[in-house]
């Protein structure tokens, strides 16, 4: 069966009109990227797939409210929907409030060479990021990848700004240690 090709605007319009074929195309086109995006927040594939399904149910029921603002706006909106699903899951699972022994997290002064870090495959970097505790990983993603302020993160997660800033510092320190260890183990 040949897949129909739609412009982003036409795809949104058809989905909003209840065209099930268009929604299937939307899902097939964006689901792999959204799953990878969710995996940055939830380090469990089954959970991420559940969140993906819940997110697309929300997309399906609310796409008529989406306002297309040019190429790329649909993907941006989908990311917001998926991020909200992930954050809601993390808040309800208390994963963000798990106590992590902050004093046990090393605050290393030594930063790996940028050249060494560039040699690390992106999938390995994502794996190392995925090994961070949920709270650290979530704050890191929101601050570094999503470019949210600590005030925005605090509001999104229901935590204090100081807690967001502290978790970011700890996430960077722990990630730095993981990167240094990986480099040491894999250098020839």
Describe the 3D structure.
By secondary structure, this protein is mainly alpha-helical. It contains 9 helices and no strands. The protein has helices at 8-16, 20-39, 45-62, 73-92, 114-118, 122-130, 134-145, 150-157, 161-186. Helix 1 crosses helix 2 (20-39), helix 2 (20-39) packs antiparallel against helix 3 and helix 2 (20-39) packs across helix 4 (73-92). The relative contact order is 0.11.
Record the SSE blueprint.
Layout: H1 8-16, H2 20-39, H3 45-62, H4 73-92, H5 114-118, H6 122-130, H7 134-145, H8 150-157, H9 161-186
Helix pairs in contact: 1-2, 2-3, 2-4, 3-4, 7-9, 8-9
Percent strand equals under 5%
User: What is the number of independent domains?
Assistant: 2
What is the CA-CA span between the terminal residues?
49 Å
Write down the CATH class of the largest domain: Mainly Alpha
Tell me the number of helical segments per DSSP (H or I, 4 or more residues long): 9
Protein structure class: mainly alpha
Low-pLDDT segments:
99-105
In CATH, what is the homologous superfamily of the largest domain?
A: Winged helix-like DNA-binding domain superfamily/Winged helix DNA-binding domain
Largest sheet: none
Name the CATH architecture of the largest domain: Orthogonal Bundle
Look up the CATH topology of the largest domain: Arc Repressor Mutant, subunit A
Mean pLDDT over the full residue set: 86
Q: How large is the radius of gyration? A: 19 Å
Helix content: 55-70%
